[in-house]
Amino acid sequence: MPGCTQTLALLPESAALARRSVRTTLACWGLEELSDSAEVVVSELVTNAVLHGRPAGVTAEEPGWCRLTLEYPAAGVVRVTVADSSPRRPVRRTAAPGDETGRGLTVVEGLAARLTVRPERNGKSVRAELTLQDLSSPPPAG
User: How do residues 23-48 score in pLDDT, each as one tens digit?
Assistant: First the structure.
C-alpha cells in the first residue's frame, strides 16, 4: 500500500508543513480531488496534537513530536493519521457562535468517512479516512 510518514515538531507552523505534504502526496497519487478536504483534516489533527498532545516538561528547544502518516489503501481512499505522545483522547466541543476554537473535530467528522482514535503504546493515534465517494455525494437535505 502506498504511504508516507513524516515526523513533525509540536509547533504551530507544523500544520502548514503538513498541509503542503498532503497536497504534494495526493498530487503524486493522482488524488487532487481529495486535497482540499485532506488539507483541512490534517491541519485540524496536527493543530490538536500541537495544542493538546505535548508531553509534560517540553521546552522550546524540545517541543515534542507528532507523526503524520498518509496511506492510499484502496482506489479513491486516503487515510490521514496523526499520532502523538498524549494518551488523552480528543474531545469534540460545541463552540459558541463567537468562539474562535472548538470546531475542529466536528469539521473533521463532517469531511471524513470515518474517524477513529486508538490508544498506542506511547500515546494515541487519530485516523481520518477520506473517500472520493463522500465528495460526490449530494449535500443532505434540510
Answer: 999 999 999 999 999 999 999 999 99
Domain encompassing residue 33: 3-91+120-136
Number of domains in the chain: 1
Rounded to 5°, angle at Cα 46 from 27 and 28: 10
Residue 98 lies in a domain: no
Lookup: cell for 17: 508543513
| Residue 125 belongs to a domain | yes
Each residue's pLDDT tens digit, 51-86? 888 777 777 678 889 999 999 999 999 999 999 999
**What is the pLDDT, as a whole number, of residue 136?**
47
CATH at 68 = 3.30.565.10
Q: Are 9 and 44 in contact (CB under 8 A)?
A: no
For residues 34 and 72, give the distance between their C-alpha atoms in angstroms, rounded to a whole number: 12
- How many angstroms separate the Cα of 34 from the Cα of each of 78, 82, 89, 110? 8, 17, 26, 14
